[in-house]
Write a structure and sequence with these properties.
Blueprint: E1 2-4, E2 13-17, H1 20-29, E3 35-40, H2 41-47, E4 59-61, H3 70-82, E5 90-95, H4 97-109, E6 115-120, H5 125-128, E7 133-138, E8 141-148, E9 153-157, H6 166-181, H7 185-194, H8 204-221, H9 236-246, H10 250-269, H11 276-285, H12 298-306, E10 316-324, E11 327-334, H13 335-352
The protein binds nicotinamide-adenine-dinucleotide and zinc ion.
Zinc ion is lined by residues 175, 236, 250, 254.
GO molecular function: 3-dehydroquinate synthase activity; metal ion binding; nucleotide binding
InterPro entries: Dehydroquinate_synthase, DHQ_synth_AroB, DHQ_synth_fam, DHQS/DOIS_N, DHQS_C
Enzyme class: lyase
Length: 353
């Protein structure tokens, strides 16, 4: 399936299907005199014999997040220059969101910008590959150096998902689910029917298509994240705090964060629009481990909550909340309010799940 972006100019295609890499890559690489492949080394090891057998002289990056360092950025740039990269070359990034973020930032900056393509190999990267954000980390924080830079296309070959560990699969699915909540109750119900009791890899393409289209809807309105794009952070305020404090996979933490945001939304709306217990039971049934957040003291999360990038006022914490499915707003809550809801939210989880 092909999805196209809907910007005023510089649009690109996003392909999502089995065998997409072999089907579409050469159509793009043929337009360039030289092509450089930046590949997650773990993904290369798993797929070099079949899916990546035609990839010529890849530059292997350390797997996952460990490639998003200033050192790895500089080292890879040196290697590309040594190999003779030119302004009219193409960079192809093959790996998850981390590979895409590093390669995208290299493409945006090397020789003041060369074209690039992302071949996402994780479910989570349906999110990161779309929207044009690129970034690397520094010791004081994640994604603090980066740019907005659009790829020439995104080729999501769903055959890569067959080697994804269950935890990574669930982590990526969390963002698909988030996109459904930003749409409608029907989309959330559809996901729960398609992926009932377990994530069904064979039926992920259509769910990912919904996720990508939703993300594009927000990004098209607000590419540089001053308004609507912030809503894509649903579940990410408490989520990030739990991710860092409890060392959780990103998406697992976002699932807990989403439950909390829905719970707080119900409290502030003064009616139970969202059946939080139902979603909690569903997340647990597809593998979310609630014991990982048991007994987490609010005080341990607070330092992370106060550092959330969305915050604009001292001692207030910004949350993306929903007045209904698909109807988002950003609300600043006091520490006392966040703590009060955190306590009653935990009591509800213990009682119901
Ligand atoms: N740019 C954006 O808009 C944006 C949005 C969301 C997330 N991100 C970034 O994305 C990154 C997370 O991405 P991710 O979750 O895709 O993880 P990742 O790239 O860190 O990969 C996670 C792990 O999965 C492995 N892996 C990748 N593909 C595999 C496959 N097919 N089979 C087996 N193993 C495989 C990797 O080697 C790594 O160990 C973070 O750095 C985050 O900041 C960026
Ligand atoms: Zn996320």
């Amino acid at each position: 399936m092909k999805i196209s972006t809907d910007y005023k100019t510089d649009n690109y295609n996003i392909y999502v299907e089995d065998n997409a890499l072999n089907k579409y890559l050469t159509e793009y690489t043929a337009r360039y005199s030289s092509v450089f492949y930046l590949v997650d080394s773990h993904v290369y090891q798993l797929h070099q014999d079949i899916l990546l057998s035609s990839i010529d002289a890849p530059i292997l990056l350390s797997p996952g997040e460990s490639c998003k360092t200033v050192e790895s950025y500089a080292r890879t740039i040196e290697e590309l220059i040594e190999r003779g990269i030119k302004r009219n070359s193409l960079i192809v990034a093959i790996g998850g969101g981390a590979t895409g973020d590093l390669a995208g930032f290299i493409a945006a900056t090397i020789l003041r910008g060369v074209d690039y393509i992302h071949v996402p190999t994780t479910v989570l990267a349906h999110d990161s590959a779309v929207g044009g954000k690129t970034a690397i980390n520094v010791p004081s924080g994640k994604n603090l150096i980066g740019s907005f830079y659009r790829p020439q296309c995104v080729i999501m070959d769903t055959l890569f998902f067959n080697t994804l560990p269950d935890d990574e699969l669930l982590s990526g699915y969390a963002e698909v689910f988030k996109h459904a909540m930003l749409n409608s109750e029907e989309e959330a119900d559809r996901l729960m029917t398609l992926h009932n009791k377990a994530i069904d890899i064979d039926r992920l393409s259509e769910s990912i298509e919904m996720g990508i289209k939703t993300k594009l809807r927000f990004v098209n309105k607000d590419e540089h994240e001053s308004n609507e794009r912030r809503y894509l952070n649903l579940g990410h305020t408490l989520g990030h705090a739990l991710e860092l404090n409890n060392k959780l996979f990103h998406g697992h933490a976002v699932m807990f964060g989403m439950l909390y945001a829905l719970y707080v939304s119900n409290q502030l709306n003064q009616k139970d629009i969202f059946d939080v217990s139902r979603y909690a039971t569903y997340f647990q049934s597809i593998g979310l481990d609630f014991s990982k957040i048991e007994d987490t003291a609010f005080e341990d999360l607070l330092k992370y909550l106060l550092k959330d990038k969305k915050n604009t006022t001292e001692n207030l914490i910004s949350f993306v909340l929903l007045s209904n499915y698909g109807e988002c707003y950003v609300k600043d809550l006091s520490i006392e309010e966040v703590k009060k809801y955190y306590t009653t939210f935990n009591e509800m989880l213990i009682k119901d799940v």
